[in-house]
Amino acid sequence: MSVANTSQHLQRLKQARLVVDEREGQFIRYHLADPAVRRLWLELREVADHRLPEVDLALNAYRPRRYVFQIISINELQEKMNRDEVFLLDVRPAIEFQAGHLPKAVSIPLGELEQRLNELPADKLIVAYCRGPFCEIADQALELLSERGWEVARLEEGVAEWNMAGNMILEGSHG
After folding, report:
1. Is the pLDDT of residue 173 over 80?
2. Catalytic residues
3. Would you call 159 helix, strand, or coil by DSSP?
4. Cβ within 8 Å of residue 45, ≥6 positions away
5. pLDDT > 90: what percent of the chain?
6. Across all residues in the chain, what is the average pLDDT?
7. Can you give the pTM of this predicted structure?
8. Do 42 and 160 touch, CB atoms closer than 8 A?
9. Which residues is 155 bridged to in the sheet?
10. Angle, CA of 133, 136 and 137, to the nearest 5°
11. For residue 20, is it left (φ>0), alpha (ψ between -120 and 50) or beta?
């Protein structure tokens, strides 16, 4: 989306009191006005996913590698994390990682991944996540990693779904 288009959308969301803004120097940072807005978005998305077949068709077109990689559930991920069997990779932009991420996640944004492959363990399942099921960044990362010989899986859920499942999210630059 263009900056102008994004700005218009944010202004409409602000007028509807779904987001609030904070000025930081020359930048304006927007965030959800209330945790209920996140719940509303996730519920609307779930209803659309179950009631509108067009959503699945659009998602298949947007994420053509959607069914190529192993999917791991939140519960499976937690079990594997407890047994130290996975390396959890957050491939979103660094600013999103700093705003909130899963515990034990390591931030390597997609654009930096190829240059930072040496930071990945060879002996663990690499589980990548991004913004949730409507985000293809993790698919792109998994494609690169699987081509280079890593065993990979995708966490379909993002930070919002993780948190809504009752799990803690962390803020800052450390996982």
Report:
1. no
2. 130
3. helix
4. 134
5. 60
6. 91
7. 0.83
8. yes
9. 72
10. 115
11. beta
